[in-house]
Amino acid sequence: MTRRQEAPQEPGPLWVHAFEALSRVGGPGTRAVLWLQDGTPGRRGYETGVDEMFAHITMLGDLIEGVTVGGGEPLRQLRPVLRLLSRIREETSLSVVLLTGHGWDEVVRMPGAAALRERVDVLLAGRSERERRPGGGPRGSSERTVHLFTGRYSAADLQAVPDAEVVIRADGTFVVTGIDPPPPGG
């Protein structure tokens, strides 16, 4: 094989913090929500391949309208995230919402920014600041900017998303999810 004929490099694994299969707070409709770590293994997280995560998402079938990817910081794992989003865009009808702590001006300067815009319906950019909480829905903070790349959703669709939800698992444990959910009892 010559240099130009080399096989494409795999994008690497996804470092996952958590996955919620059926959520109403990650964006419009019922969504699979994938929280990624900042790109390195951690105590609570796990490593998985892009194809395995794609299969996990598509097994949900018609139970979900889309996928939300947040973190940590998902853009620290840009190559595997782009690969996952490419498969979602090309092989399903699912929508994609992506949350990043990077400001919009930082995102547009990143290598792969154009590819990212082609694979995402809604991008929420900027740091989430708790003292500026009244952003509503998945926006979380008024400091985050909303970028609608397709006609699939409107600002009103995002505003209608609940701020938080409580998920009670079959084993009796529960988790509070959402974008900067309020603390229990708060």
From TrEMBL:
Protein origin, superkingdom: Bacteria
Region (Disordered) residue spans: 127-146
The protein's name in its UniProt record: 4Fe-4S cluster-binding domain-containing protein
